[in-house]
Specification:
Elements: E1 3-9, E2 19-26, H1 30-42, E3 45-48, E4 58-59, E5 63-67, E6 70-75, E7 81-82, H2 85-93, E8 98-102, H3 106-123, H4 128-148, H5 153-172, H6 177-180, H7 190-207, H8 212-223, H9 234-237, H10 245-263, H11 273-278, H12 299-313, H13 325-333, H14 341-352
Helix pairs in contact: 3-4, 4-5, 4-7, 5-7, 5-8, 7-8, 7-12, 7-14, 12-13
Length: 357
């Protein structure tokens, strides 16, 4: 590892070159530098669900494949691109990559999704699957926007409405829960994770018979459970390997930071804070930030903790591979001292009723 020096000068000396000493600062490892650069580039893209693309329709936004840390052009929309059989086959062939678009093209993608609903309504072929897909993608777009501007009351209010729509959909058609999830096995996007955790939490809430009001509070808390991560430096969020003590303490602060961001927002229901504040607490008392244990952890905290852990385990990061759903559930089952095992059993049953791909 190369060495970098910073110079400490004598402030009382008029001589600007009067150096008292040099301190060695370790250079950032190559791997960490590469990840930091990748994270900055990745923010300029938006992950889309390939299931939202319909053969025979036209797009006016470019699409890229993201594999590892590389972004390769799939379709160049300098002109309108028809989603032909050949192009759709290419999109389906390689399931080891994510399909992304430029962040600047999100409005064009949103308009494309709206056109699918409009076309379906006109032909009488609009179905729940299409509406669910559009709702899920709209939720991801809003969360990306909200994470860039986390103190926006207007966007927070929109998030609450989308959570209500997600809850309606899952109550109406429990089989649509699969369509509400983005199965991103190949990379981690915070906005996608937030939507997935909300969907899984609401789905579990429905499975155990929570009232509609409680489902809405649970859902908005789960959707915004990681909003405090907007205050954590990206080099810590995306570090390869184990965090040191300082970095781990800094990462833990995202829970309290989330509370600070949301506390003065009238649009955020008070009981939803339980999901934000407690999703990293463990029944064993070994969680954070308050080392709560047993029934000191609220129902929302216990539900969101299971959903958060499951989605994190089944998603790839720059520093770890994704686990299969079965492996992820096995890992959680082996840590039964940390989780509400009755709720976990209901969670497994819920997943067993949907197609996980």
């Amino acid at each position: 590892m190369s060495k970098k020096y910073i110079e400490i000068h004598d402030k009382n000396s008029p001589e600007t070159n009067n150096v008292l000493k040099k301190v060695i600062v370790p250079a950032m490892p190559e791997g960490d530098r590469a990840i930091k650069s990748f994270v900055l580039r990745k923010d300029e893209y938006f992950q889309i669900d390939r299931r939202s693309l319909r053969k025979g329709t036209s797009i006016n936004f470019s699409m890229y494949s993201q594999k590892g840390m590389a972004f390769d052009l799939l379709a160049d929309a300098k002109t309108t691109v028809l989603l032909t059989d050949d192009l759709m086959a290419r999109l389906s062939e390689d399931m080891t990559c994510e399909i992304v678009i430029r962040k600047s093209d999100i409005p064009l993608y949103s308009a494309y999704l709206d056109s699918l609903l409009t076309s379906g309504a006109e032909t009488g072929k609009q179905d729940m699957e299409d509406r669910t897909m559009v709702l899920k993608e709209n939720s991801k777009m809003l969360m990306k926007d909200l994470l860039a501007d986390p103190r926006s009351g207007k966007k927070l209010k929109k998030a609450g409405k989308l959570v209500g729509d997600i809850t309606d959909t899952i109550i109406e058609e429990k089989g649509m829960l699969y369509n509400m999830l983005t199965l991103s096995k190949h990379d981690y996007y915070t906005y996608t994770h937030c939507v997935n955790v909300a969907v899984l939490s609401i789905g579990l809430g429905v499975a155990i018979g929570l009232s509609r009001n409680r489902l809405d509070s649970l859902g908005i808390g789960a959707m915004l459970h990681d909003i405090g991560k907007t205050t954590i430096p990206p080099e810590i969020l995306n570090k390869q390997g184990k965090l040191d003590d300082y970095e781990f303490r800094r990462m833990q602060e995202h829970v309290r930071e989330g509370e600070n961001i949301l506390r003065d927002r009238n649009e955020f229901p008070e009981d939803a804070f339980e999901a934000v504040l407690q999703h990293h607490e463990k029944l064993s008392g070994k969680g954070y930030p308050n080392r709560l244990h047993g029934d000191k952890i609220s129902l929302y905290g216990r539900i969101t903790g299971i959903a958060d852990c499951y989605d994190a385990l089944t998603t790839q990061r720059p520093y770890k591979a994704a686990f299969s759903p079965y492996k992820a559930l096995s890992i959680i089952a082996n840590e039964k001292e940390h989780y509400d095992f009755a709720l976990f059993g209901d969670f497994v049953k819920m997943l067993g009723k949907i197609k996980l791909g």
